[in-house]
Write a structure and sequence with these properties.
Chain lengths: ~110, ~120
């Protein structure tokens, strides 16, 4: 059973470009969470999705950030018009049900030049 | 909103010494989870505590959940160099509402073990 998969593992973008981060949850998991982590800091919750629905997006910046988890295919975290402050590691996690342990992917390290 | 505070932020120990990290929530939790993240790696689930006053052990690791379900601790006995990493607690608020299931992470304790 493959774990949570994220791609790309490393992404470099210039200011103003778009970044698309993909996450495939573990098989059988329908709950997906996105977190952002700055160097030597904790994980900041961004958004919680369950197939085709956004359950909680209280951690998402109001502008430029969006997330989706379509019926088919991976969850996508999209950052439009990236700025240097968006540089961070973005982790995706999945769980089989609410409140259960979360399995994390390897993360996408985004660098904005 | 819910806040989870974790102390200390950094801890340096000599191999063989004990280590403890503490976690406090501003609100009562449904359960608390602990994760370990190795340098350059991703968080890995260690354990979940659900019951008030619960104590669980995993080899040299002892996890406690406070009676009021607002605080927790992780204690490592006789640290080894393989224990190096950042230890995070993460709380889930009381069940109910759209926020249930969302983990609120503490800032983490970065553990360095000197051989």
């Amino acid at each position: 059973n493959a774990g949570v998969m994220q791609n790309p593992r490393h992404l470099v973008r210039r200011r103003g470009q778009e970044a698309r981060l993909r996450c495939s949850p573990m098989k059988g998991h329908s709950h997906v969470y996105w977190y952002r982590q700055l160097p030597e800091e904790g994980l900041k919750f961004m958004v919680y999705l369950q197939k085709e629905n956004i359950i909680d997006e209280s951690g998402m910046p109001k502008e430029r950030f969006s997330a989706e988890f379509p019926k088919e295919g991976p969850s996508i975290l999209r950052i439009q018009q990236v700025v240097r402050g968006d540089s961070a590691a973005y982790f995706c996690a999945s769980s089989p049900q609410r409140g259960y342990e979360q399995f994390f992917g390897p993360g996408t390290r985004l660098t904005v030049l | 909103g819910q806040q989870v505070m974790q102390i200390p932020q950094y801890q340096h120990v000599q191999e063989g010494e004990d280590f403890t990290t503490y976690c406090n929530s501003s609100t009562t939790l449904s359960n608390i989870q602990w994760y370990k993240q190795r340098p350059g790696g991703h968080p890995v689930f260690l354990i979940q505590l659900v019951k008030s006053g619960e104590v669980k052990k995993q080899k040299r690791l002892t996890f406690q959940f406070g009676e009021a379900k607002k605080n927790s601790s992780l204690h490592i006995t006789a640290t080894q160099t393989t224990d190096v990493g950042t230890y995070f607690c993460a709380g889930i608020r009381i069940a109910g509402g759209t926020s249930y299931g969302k983990l609120t992470f503490g800032q983490g304790t970065i553990l360095t073990v000197h051989p």
